Amino acid sequence: MKAPKTHAIYNPEYECMSRDAMTALQTERLRQVVRHEYDHVPIYRARMDAKGVRPEDIRTLDDLRHLPFTEKTDLRDQFPFGLFAVPKKDIVRIQGSSGTTGKPIVAGYTQHDVDVWAEMAARALTAAGCTAEDIVQVSYGYGLFTGGLGLHQGASLIGAMTVPMSSGNTQRQIMMLKELGATMLCCTPSYAIYIGETAREMGLDPHTDLKLKAGCFGAEPWTEEMRMRLEQLLDFDACDIYGLTEIAGPGVSFECLEKNGMHVNEDHVIPEIIDPVTEEPLPYGSSGELVFTTITKQGMPMLRYRTHDICRLDASPCACGRTTVRMGRITGRTDDMLIIRGVNVFPSQIESVLVSVKGAAPHYLLVVDREHSTDSLEVQVEIDESGFSDTVADLEHIRNEIKDKIKSVVGISAKITLVNPHTIPRSEGKAKRVIDKRKLV
Amino acid sequence: MTIRQLSVFAENKPGTLVRITKTLGDAGVDIRAMSLADTQDFGILRLITSDPVKAGKVLADIGCVTSVTEVLAVEIPNRPGAMTELVTLLGEHEINIEYLYAFITVSGQNAYVVLRVKNPAQAETVLCGAGLCLIGEEDINKL
Prior knowledge:
The structure holds two protein chains of two kinds.
Chain A: H1 12-15, H2 19-40, H3 42-51, H4 72-77, E1 93-97, E2 105-109, H5 111-127, E3 135-138, H6 146-158, E4 161-164, H7 170-180, E5 184-187, H8 189-201, H9 206-209, E6 214-218, H10 224-234, E7 237-243, E8 250-255, E9 262-264, E10 269-274, E11 281-282, E12 288-294, E13 305-311, E14 313-314, E15 326-327, E16 332-333, E17 338-340, E18 343-345, H11 347-354, E19 360-371, E20 374-383, H12 392-409, E21 415-419, E22 426-427, E23 430-431, E24 434-436
Parallel strand pairs in A: 3-4, 3-5, 5-6, 6-7, 19-24, 20-21
Antiparallel strand pairs in A: 1-2, 7-8, 8-9, 9-15, 10-11, 10-12, 12-13, 13-16, 14-15, 17-18, 19-20, 22-23
Helix pairs in contact in A: 2-3, 5-6, 7-8, 8-10, 11-12
Chain B: E1 3-11, H1 16-26, E2 31-38, E3 42-49, H2 52-61, E4 66-77, H3 82-92, E5 97-104, E6 110-117, H4 120-129, E7 133-134, H5 137-142
Antiparallel strand pairs in B: 1-3, 1-4, 2-3, 4-6, 4-7, 5-6
């Protein structure tokens, strides 16, 4: 049941700071962090030198535009420790996510970084109505993926009773929601819908059988229609939460109960919107690519990290009282990354698997769909003569090898369909790699 | 004595077999025996034809993936119990059958069993030793 709309704020000093004070704070932190990165991260120094930018040239927030960008490929190329700005002994945590090819990316956190991230998540949970009185069921995966631990740390910081369910085993999830009387749920929005549908199928009436009042849902893009469906299924408030491993994890930005954009934790990160083609900064209100610069992160600070997510920023005041800039829904990507069941998937990862499998040609089509609120991935692969024989076992072997390797490299299960050579549609000689049948925007 | 079997990858969707058999028919290739191994998502069509080389070429021309396998074709009497005798013989000699399919001819006197085994030479010795007759590609076209 939805709670009456209140606007509790975890850290009003920073979340409700005047714009002028925020600008002054960000400017001071930016200057310090740029100096530190220049002195401690060789690749940042080399890139700034290449652009002819010295740390002392960064005096105002407008000077951000002179700094070089950082890309996900940098995390891969500098894997594992090349972007760390502190000695390894000061790193207390590693989190990770999939990279653009077979190799994962990792991020290192100092204790301070973990604490900052926990507070970001605590702010998000508080904005959704969480207090020490609440029981928070965390049904994001735990592990290298930041979802589970991120919300867990936030809920613990608030002092809520935290239930680390991780993902999967939906019937058991629902049993725990009911038996413990959880008041908040955190997971991907598609999994939340699946939990809601399964609960209904089990004959539960969320209004009377469950005590859920709200939840934080993220790690994949979703729509207003999905919010309405989710809120109706579980009879509660569903708030969006955004984050990425490269910057911290979930909580980089979050919705309050006004549900009109995600407040960015600007005392820790500076968001920019750029034109993805010219790479020039765009004013607030323009749709473009979201770029983050971390200004308090010690372990692996990010200079102008290109998220490739497309959205808008809005600095107008919010009825909740927070003064932080809000980002709108992610409306697309400037690269070919897909988010499937909360996992980042690049077509290039699939390609790297296929070239390693004898009998499979690197011609493939990814068909993404959403069935019963759960994403599905089908990989259609052209076979070639080298792997084809007269026995079914040989073809099954190819198929299983592809399936196992995709599971290992990308981290998700895919259905593998073998097809004849030259049957994957090609346009202008380049294969069309992805058909996404999900309706998201 | 072995014969060449042509295997063709077949996607599991309507029209796949039409495309293959029509191509062979148009090229004047006669299908003498065939079997379809299927899974949920794809199949393998195994063909004994009047001209395996030509069959392979015309199918490759329409984009099919094919492979050629040496198989044995054994003549057995067309009467109850004959099949049991054949597989008993192979079993006694520890010869594993990967797959088989059979056909009879118009006269109906004999049946022909196409056998895929790992070691055709060994199987041939066993079969001939038991007095069974193996047929070759030239014989196939005379049946």
